[in-house]
Task: structure prediction
Amino acid sequence: MSETRECPACAMPTDAEAPECEVCGYEFPESKAGVTAMTWLFIGLMVLFAVPLLAWLAGWFG
Ligand SMILES: [Zn+2]
Result:
């Protein structure tokens, strides 16, 4: 007995243990931790660019 999960691409219920959607072929992320790590990496990069930009803006307008 296996559970099902909703495919984010086509919104159809698919086998929760399947590596990809049986309907549209969407590949599920291997783990939520991987998605979270990528999210934090993206946020980190945004901060790296945003902090100097904000510092420059503060110096320009301040
Ligand atoms: Zn799908």
In short: The chain is about 50% helix and 10% strand. The mean pLDDT is 87. The first strand starts at residue 4 and ends at 6. The radius of gyration is 20 Å.
